[in-house]
# Entry
Amino acid sequence: MRICLITPRPDHPVLAATTALLTPRHQVESIDPESEGDGVQEGTAVPGPLADVYLLKARTPRALALARSFEERGAPVLNSAAATALCQDRTEMAGLARRAGLPFAATRTVASLAGLADERDLPYPLVVKSRHSRRHDLVTRVDNAAQLRGLRSTWAQEPVVVQEFTANRGWDHKLWVIDGRVFAALCRSELAEEGRGPTLPLELGDLPRGWQDLVRTVGAVFALEVYGVDVIDAGDGTPLIVDINAFPGIRGQMGAPEALAALALRAARRP
# Structure
């Protein structure tokens, strides 16, 4: 089989480990979408024979356009360009999740942070995030109006989503899924006063009852096969989903490269 990685980082740990598993019997190559010609944006770049499957480990507009071009020519892409793009728009993400009955944080959209800062009687504390998920975007807890106004100098015109802060112990449950197989870890929330800390291992048996089924349902709702779900415990094991990511890093999870390699081969063999 010929497997192609759409990524600027084929040396990413999970991709490198997956490549090592596949290369004894299969051909693995990579495409950096940012290095392709201008035609990538129109989906006209990279002519020639198609790979048997593409793994989309990038989320930029050029990467999505490239993935769409392969899909239009009949190649399988994991995850699809449409599913990946959906997870980049936090407004659309929240809307779909809540329509599907998932316990996703109540979310409203504001055209700009400046417009939010002009509102009165906001129910602090708030969680404010860039509407469009990307590297170095805005994700912060805001405790008062003065703190919100302080964000204007950098983020005034940024479209944002707003969520009421849900009291919790300050830990995110990082749940990753590859083709239905769940992996888990604990990570100090970036909204916690202590800030981000190391990622800690978490046994699946230590998850509250029903959480594994919940994150598998997310995959079905969002048409994802490789994805991550950030969940907080809102009290007594009650889950609250705060983020969904297409093809996250899944670092340090024993068995993840094997699961990804098996998924790639299975997708490549699909008629």
